Every structure is written in structure tokens, then in C-alpha cells.
Amino acid sequence: MTPTSQYSTERNPSDTAVATRHLTTRRDTELLSVQLLGEWRALQSAQIEAELAALDLDGLRRAHIATGEARLDLTAAWLLREFLQRARAAGVETSFTDAVPPTLTLVDRTLTGESPEETRHVEWLAPGIAVQDIGRRAVRGVRDFIATVTFIGHATTQLAHGLTHLPSLRAPSIARHVYDTGITAIPIVALIAFLVSVILAYLGAQELQQFGAAVFVADLVTVGVLRELGVLLTAIIVAGRSGSAFTAEIGFMQLNEEVDALDAIGVDPFEALVVPRMVGLMIALPLLTVVADVIGLIGGGLLCHLLLQMPLIEYLGRVRGAIASTTFWVGIIKAPVFAGLIALAGCFNGMRVRNSSRELGRLTTLAVVQAIFAVILADALFAILFLRLNI
Questions:
Q1: pLDDT tens across 358-380, in order?
Q2: 181: nearest Cα among 272, 294, 276
Q3: How many domains are there within the chain?
Q4: Is the residue at 89 inside a domain?
Q5: Residue among 97, 106, 89 at smallest CA distance from 3
Q6: Smallest Cα–Cα separation from 159: which of 278, 335, 290, 288?
């Protein structure tokens, strides 16, 4: 049983009314109806305590409490809880005619040590608990979907406005993000591209040598790196490196209320924080893809030369022959789309950070997972599209 279940929700009319600053009471022979009024704050705790203590419980059997528009802080909820305990000790049945104040529920849970999560685990077979849990998950999913669509719409609109009104774009901020996400990522991108191309060439050589077709290793490396591996591996690296950084930066600003400060002084946070990161990454990722393509072809050439004794001139000739008019551009076209997805995932989760550093860590991890998933899904959709277009 959750702590709030001890309060029922009944109604009963009353005949006589007495009003004080924080209470309006109606009483007949055995029923007391109490209406809470206004702000119940710690500053008025002495007066609230006096008004509650003045309520006469003699001869009562039931007490109905209506919170209405009253707002209770923790101190006021504590005083109300003490009154309810006094009433029950006097044999009075207490109930709320509307919602139980959340602060009163919090005080009850704190004092009893009962957790709703623990209750659900114990009573997971109860139909009411199951329906509640399904309902919460459904409502949370709908809200997350609406928030995601709203964020994407706002970011896309602001990006379109910036591209059509170039002076509104923040060039220094864009340049900084190009440097942070692009220039500083060149070493790790180049290393990964080199290693993966070497692995691809080695595995291809092991298989193709069995059929006397080792010369086609160059074709395999060229098409694989330029069409898929170069841009895909680069996007995954950037998602883990820059996507998480976007979430951490914006999330830390949320914790420090810097985003609220921007809004308060009339600066659109999307214009100042989201759009520069999107534009910067959409510039940097294609350039990193070109670096990965070049380093990948170099790695494949070195392995072909060392393992297959293929002259570099012959390797370059095979590379030129394997590159169709669309081979290079198929990979480059994907890069800005992947960059936009990574930036949106990072910034969206950064904007969602609230209350604690633990939430910041959770959403940073979630941003990386979402970005990588979105990149791989988009790559699969591109593959189907290019197949239909025979590209």
C-alpha cells in the first residue's frame, strides 16, 4: 500500500462555516469539513499551527479536507500531517475530497521509508499496479516523442533562418566547433581509418588469393572505404567524441542555469547553443570523411604492397579503375546528414538535463547511444535508397 492510500476521497455537506486566514471550516454534529486557503509556508507556520490546534475534534466522527488551490511547502505539510494524526488518535476518520498534496505524500514516504518502486516490485501481479505502470510508460513515451519532435522542429527552423539570414549565424562559435569537432579529431579518425582499411585488405586478400583474384583487393578496399566505412566509422567516432561533449556542455549549463539566463536576456538558446554546433559539425564531418578516405586508401595500398607484393603504381591504377563517378560522392553526401543527427541527439539530451549531475551522466550516455543508432539507421536507409536509384 502506498502512503497516499490511507486518505479516501469522500464529500459531505456542512451547515456552519468559520473562516480564518488559512482555513475555512464547516461543522455539523459529527462532520468537520476543512478548506485549505492560500499559501501554506514556513513563514506562517506559527499561525497555521495555532489555527489547526484551535479546531475542536470533540464529538466528531469524520473530517473532510479540501486542498483546492492551496500550496503547501514541507513545513506546512508536516503541520497538516500532525493534525491528521491527532484527529485519527481522537477516533476521527480523515479523508481528502480532492488530490492529496504532493508535499504531504513526500513527508509520509520519508517518515515511513516506503518506496513506490519497492511496492510495485512486491505487488507486480496486482492488476492495478500493472495498469498504472503501463499508463505511466505510455504517457512518458508520448511526452518524449512530442518533446523530440518539438526540439527537432525548433532546431530545424532556427537553422533554416540562420542559413537564409547569414548575419544571424555566430561565426566565431561555428569556427570553434569546427576546430573542436574536426581538427582535433583528425588523429583518432586517421588511426581508425588506417587500421580498419588494413584489416579489410588483409581479410580480402586471404579469401581472394584462394581464387587467384588477389588483384581485386584494391577494388574491395576502394569501394568499401569510399562508399561505407570511411563515413560510417568517422560518424561513429564523432558520435562518441563530440555528441557526448555537446550533451555534457549544454547539460552543465542547464545545471548552472546559464540556459535560463540566456533566455532571460532575450537570447534564443537554440540560436546560441544548438545551431552553431549543428553547422560546425556539418562542416567538420565531411572534411573528416575525406581524411578517413585518403588514409584508408593509403593503408590498403601499404598492405597490398607488403603482403601481395603489388607495386604502388598498379595499386593506384586499380583504385582509379574502381572509382565510379558516384563512388566518392555517395560517402560524402551521407556526412552532413550523419552530422545533423549526431548534433541533434547531443543537444537534445543536453537540454533535458535537470536537477543533478547523475542525470547529466545518464543523458550523456543516452546521447551517444541515440546518435550511433540514428547514424546506423540512416546509413541503412541510404543503402536502400542508392540501391533503388542504382547508384
A1: 889 999 999 999 999 999 999 99
A2: 276
A3: 2
A4: yes
A5: 106
A6: 278
